[in-house]
Amino acid sequence: MKQLPTLFENDETTFVLAGAAHLYAEEGLVTSLEKLGYTLEQL
After folding, report:
1. How many CB atoms lie within 10 A of CB 30?
2. Cα of 27 vs its chain's centroid, Å
3. Is 40 contained in some domain?
4. How many CA atoms lie within 13 A of 12 on its CB side?
5. Domain of 20, in residue numbers
6. Does a structural domain hold residue 16?
7. Helix (H, G, I), strand (E, B), or coil: what is residue 19?
8. Closest CA to 18 of 5, 7, 10, 28
9. Are 24 and 32 in contact (CB under 8 A)?
10. Based on CB atoms within 10 Å of each CB, which residue in 11, 16, 23, 43 is the most buried?
């Protein structure tokens, strides 16, 4: 998780693929990125 924000430092669209177990847990990827202020879109 700590490495992901460095991928978002430019104005380009970034695609991140993660397994289901990492997405919606209390401290999962979706929750963590939303807490940091990122907007997520499910494709």
Report:
1. 15
2. 12
3. no
4. 6
5. 4-35
6. yes
7. coil
8. 28
9. no
10. 23
N residues, the chain: 43
Domain count, the chain: 1
Query: What is the value of pTM for the model shown?
Result: 0.64
Q: What is the pLDDT of residues 2-41, one digit of tens each?
A: 788 888 888 888 888 888 888 878 888 888 888 989 888 8
20 within domain boundaries = yes
Q: Give the DSSP H or E segment for 32.
A: helix 29-35
Is residue 43 domain-resident? no
Please give the structure tokens belonging to residue 11.
């104005």
**DSSP classification of residue 21:** G
Largest CA-CA distance found in the chain, in angstroms, rounded: 28
Between CA 31 and CA 26 the distance in angstroms is: 7
